[in-house]
Design a protein that fits this description.
Layout: H1 8-38, E1 50-53, E2 62-67, E3 70-78, E4 81-86, E5 97-99, E6 104-106, E7 113-114, E8 120-122, E9 131-132, E10 134-137, E11 140-143
Antiparallel strand pairs: 1-11, 2-3, 3-4, 4-9, 5-6, 6-7, 7-8, 10-11
Length: 144
Amino acid sequence: MPEKTLPPDQRRRYLLAMLGAVGGALAAMGAWPLVRFFMPRDTGGAGSAIEIPRKDVPPGSAHFFDYRGRPAVLLQPRSGEFLALTAVCTHLGCIVKWQDDVGEFLCPCHGGRFSLDGAVLGGPPPAPLETFPVTLKGDQIVIG
């Protein structure tokens, strides 16, 4: 039975084609996270508003919720006064935690500190927390 063998130049072309296909697939898989990082996120509609009952935010407390697909926090520093901020640190995007005992936000990733109104108090964050408009409608707090 005759054995069929390919000449060396055809084998070389086949191996280079296979290497190129595997390399291209690996490059695409490696580049995908970078592409997703730079693609804009769905914000859930720029005009969307969230309503939260007033009873869910007692004075001096923080209420975390999702706003336009991202974590946010609603505060009532004094009775009848409400403030809504993003809960995403401006340094690397970690979720900040509210500290009742000191009345400020702390980023658990790199120790960034933010005041009650979102201003940077210390650490590496380059900018304050984003604020959102808040209005009252009866017993509802409307954000956005």
